[in-house]
Amino acid sequence: MNVSTTAPLDDTAPRRQVWWKALLRDRAAALALIVLVGITLAALFAPFLAPHDPYEGTRAVMQPPVWAERGNATHLLGTDGQGRDILSRLLYGTRLTLLIGLLSVGLGGTVGSLLGLLSAFYRRIDPYVMRFADVMLSFPAILLGLALVAIFGPGALPVIIALSIATVPDSARIARSIAIGVMEQEYIEAGRAIGLSDRALFTRYLLRNSISAIMIFVSLRFGQIILIGAALSFLGLGARPPAAELGMMASQGRDFMLFAPHIAIIPSLAIFVIVLAANITGDAIRDVLDPRLRS
């Protein structure tokens, strides 16, 4: 008797074309994706796009944006309380904000997903992994940030570590719940019956059939991480001055709200646009990849 141990046929390329068409068919998702890609490219090429040195002050202190009274084209978005060009700092600040978000989601999502998959695959370690996740869930990201700043001092690295740790338990729970459903499929039992190794079963079947749902969680988590990271920087726990970071730029503009509100409003709007675009894109990815919502 021939036993087929192969998971559903690998039609990855055609499915990707269907996913892209479905994603781009949603106008809001397509616009959000374009905005997110544009912001990412602008951040990557900040050294070439920035019109001024983001750390060098000028005599034009608190100059308003070009569309306001007394604004001029030398500083399109105006200057801050130290005369630094806001557009240049916005480009560099977006780069650091996105870097913090990507590293936090990447590290925390990878570690948490691996723990969740292993927990479902080796059920004897499941209670220990889940209790570990429960303990980690009891520590908010801001509290972890405060603790790490007390140990290492303010900086981007403690924020990345805190956000990565905060992402691990949620990732582990999501990956475990997905993997448990995959482990109940017939091709897993068939693979065990013909003697496939645990490594082959894990990588060829469990990981491959769980990765789409894990990517849905990661895409939805990215916007939350950006917002939490900006909040930590706003509280003074993030990057150290004179580095540019959106949350810290908004915090520095609080003192000038009555005289030059654009100093705080512009980076706050940038955070809003990034998080909104990330959330809309994440929702669209979920709708495309989740078979229960695909119809």
Tally of contiguous helical segments:
11
Average pLDDT reading: 82
Query: What's the total number of strands?
Result: 0
Radius of gyration: 23 Å
Provide a concise account of the structure shown:
By secondary structure, the chain is mostly helical.
Give keywords.
11 helices, 295 residues, mainly alpha, 69% helix, disordered N terminus
Detailed description of the structure:
There is one protein chain. It is built from 11 helices and no strands. It has 295 residues and is an all-alpha fold. The chain is elongated and about 75 Å long. Helix 4 runs antiparallel to helix 5 and helix 6 crosses helix 7. The N terminus is likely disordered.
Walk me through the topology.
Layout: H1 12-25, H2 27-44, H3 46-49, H4 86-121, H5 126-137, H6 141-152, H7 156-183, H8 186-193, H9 198-234, H10 246-252, H11 262-289
Helix pairs in contact: 2-4, 2-11, 4-5, 4-7, 4-9, 5-7, 6-7, 7-9, 8-9, 9-10, 9-11, 10-11
